[in-house]
Amino acid sequence: MNPFSNLGIRHDIVNAISELGFENPTPIQEQSIPVLLTGSNDFVGLAQTGTGKTAAFGLPLLELLDFEENHPQALVLCPTRELCLQITNDLKNYAKNMRNVNVVAVYGGASISDQLRTIKRGVQIVVATPGRMLDIINRKAIDFSAVQYVVLDEADEMLNMGFQEDIDSILSTTPDEKKTWLFSATMPSEVRRIAKKYMDNPFELTMGEKNTGNANIEHEYYVVRARDKYAAFKRIVDFNPEIFGIVFCRTKIETQEIAESLIKDGYNADSLHGDLSQQQRDKVMKRYRERSLQLLIATDVAARGIDVNDVTHVINYSLPDEIENYTHRSGRTARAGKTGVSIAIINSKELGKIRQIERVIGKKFIKAEIPTGFDVCEKQLFALVHKVHNVEVNEQQIEQYIPRIMAEFADLSKEDVIKRFASLEFNSFLEYYKNAPDLNAPADDRFGKERGEGGEKFARTGVRGDFTRLFINLGSVDGFSRGDLLGYICNTTKISGRTVGKIDVKGVYSFFEVPHDEVEKVQSGFKSADFQGREVRIEIAGEGVSERRDGGNRGGERRSYGGNSGGGFRRDGGNRDRDNGNRGERNFYNGDKRDGGNSGGGFRDFSGKRKEDRGERRRRF
Ligand code: AMP
């Protein structure tokens, strides 16, 4: 039996949601549906977006209303047009096997006469944004005297957007006996106040800790100098070839500038902000949903109500002014049980803000390092290898060329062919990134301010303050994220996760910090360890690790780990600051997707007008 039936949902609805892929209720559905189905409680649900809350209130509404009657019985208020359309659409999908279910979406920026006409024909459920709803009420075009249920969805967002008075006016037209169900991602005092004002001894449900972000989100921050922010941001994006992200800026101007620069630099990006017409916003959102955009650059207000699944990264290009907004931003990733990363790119003065956010979300940020140019090359190379491995071959089309291709490669071994093919791209990456500067804020800026003394010492010896930095010959190509590596280290060595300091997962290796007195335990714990048949190597960073791990072929170009003590990229960064240069032709492997018309792969000639472009960018950011 489908578990939704056990919760008390009728057969035809269960069939419809099964088709949507709802096999098991999400935690909020499991806990709220039985309560709401009684129809006799006010309800407060503290839940993030993406937890399945639409069905949590939508399914009980479909069970409780009388669809033989054709007047408004339920009103759902939500902050944005996007969310309004989404909820309406979801309800219609859940009800697709039911008869006589009429739902109307009432929102601004669209023809009011169509909405009035639908209302006149008769509806049982009204899903609305407050402004337009009030407009319709003021025209006396709707009768809420028989409303039994009011849902306030994303209540905190509605209050943030200044809808308090509108909500008061709207609710005053509904009967006192109605039941009110409130959902909110956070519970600031204003939301508490409306809960108190409109509800009578509500049933309260908290998914996770109060005001806590989704447990599936990993929070990271990078410390960079203000002038390197844009370049650092691009490096992070380049290091994540499969990124499908939302980038938050503080102002419309910043949003537009970043988007324009990214487009110019060959990325698939566009902006979403309040100065766009509704039509333009819809167009951008359509492209993002369809994934022809990889990066959506948005302001907080414009991004409200965006509920695209599978967002891999939220990037805080600028931290929000209001800390609460960080929760809303990061909640755009890790939806529907998936995992996601929320990244903040900050300068050293903003560390205090990170600590404040940590207190609000009840979770620690991981301090991350901007990848080196070489790290990016390595990551992109393996992304390419992976892509080639998984590419779908059109046997029919390719067949006719195979004899000629084989003849071309007749004098080469399989290994040679692979090497050449990989080098085709890899050589251009190396060329592109060969003098890429270290973009992490200098050690004295970061370590000094953050953890007291010891930054310089650490750079040379692997010993900083109370921590020793250790090298391990496992990394992202072995499938490790920071969290995985932490788990692996703790399981293998039996040291506590809390004692482990910073973890830097690189491509084929990683670094992690442990207190000095734990070093021996870690080393002996890993003594006989192997990973998938490979010996696991642990070394103290700074004891010749860098030369060896790079296998000799990259040592010269790579910045020395953990520090900026003059070597590596920084040396020649001055004359070839490529990350700041014009990257109109940047193209990794996704030429077709990323910059339409600029396909052909690889990095091409970046010389040209690099200097002027850098000047421009510097002025702007
Ligand atoms: P919501 O929080 O209501 O916006 O839901 C987030 C996403 O999760 C939507 O794409 C839903 O279709 C999906 N979803 C909701 N409930 C379930 C479920 N029980 N099983 C699978 N997916 C679900």
UniProtKB/TrEMBL annotation:
UniProt record, GO biological process: response to cold; ribosome assembly
Enzyme Commission no: 3.6.4.13
GO cellular component, one term: ribosome
UniProt motif Q motif: location: 2-30
Domain Helicase ATP-binding: 34-205
Source organism superkingdom: Bacteria
Stretches with biased composition (Basic and acidic residues): 542-560, 569-596, 606-621
Any one GO MF annotation of this record: RNA strand annealing activity
Pfam families: DbpA, DEAD, Helicase_C
Helicase C-terminal domain: residues covered: 216-378
Catalytic activity: ATP + H2O = ADP + phosphate + H(+)
Domain DEAD-box RNA helicase Q: 2-30
TM stretches of this protein: none
CDD domains reported in the protein's UniProt record: DEADc, RRM_DbpA, SF2_C_DEAD
Keywords, sorted A to Z: ATP-binding, Cytoplasm, Helicase, Hydrolase, Nucleotide-binding
Sequence similarity: Belongs to the DEAD box helicase family.
Protein name (database record): DEAD-box ATP-dependent RNA helicase RhpA
Organism for this UniProt entry: Mucilaginibacter mali
Taxonomic lineage from the root: Bacteria, Pseudomonadati, Bacteroidota, Sphingobacteriia, Sphingobacteriales
